[in-house]
Amino acid sequence: MAQELAEAQRHLATFPQRTGRRTKAHRAAARKVANVYAKARRKRLDFHHKTARALIRDHDVIAHERLNTAGMTKTAAPKPDPGQDGAFRPNGAAARAGLNKSILDAGWGSFSPGWSHREEAEAGALVLLAARRRFPGPGHPHPRLQRIGPVLSRLDA
Questions:
Q1: Is residue 101 classed as helix, strand or coil in its secondary structure?
Q2: What percent of the chain lies above the pLDDT cut of 90?
């Protein structure tokens, strides 16, 4: 699906940017990109529903971390260069953009909201954990976090 989206976006990018009226081919290319995004969204939601259903069916108590995905995917603030007027220092925006895309692609924000009503229907317990502010260094996970079950990754991986 990622290659299909990349191909559709490349084709859409070949059309001129500034034009008064869009051609029929341009509209078709834009529609193709929109359809690929819609398909990815449907696949992501289907995966979330099936995974949530399986977790609720197989476990009595589910604990998950309440993540602030809106704050995690904010754009990097510009850093003005004090030595030059109108110039800016590198702020890691390109790296941040890639991370933001990965977070949004995995759909962390849309995975957990549907759990509460399902847990109530199944008479199970749902525990929301506050996000931790400090983490151990890379490669040194907390001992309790080593027992976590499946790791959810991108759809196209």
A1: helix
A2: 20
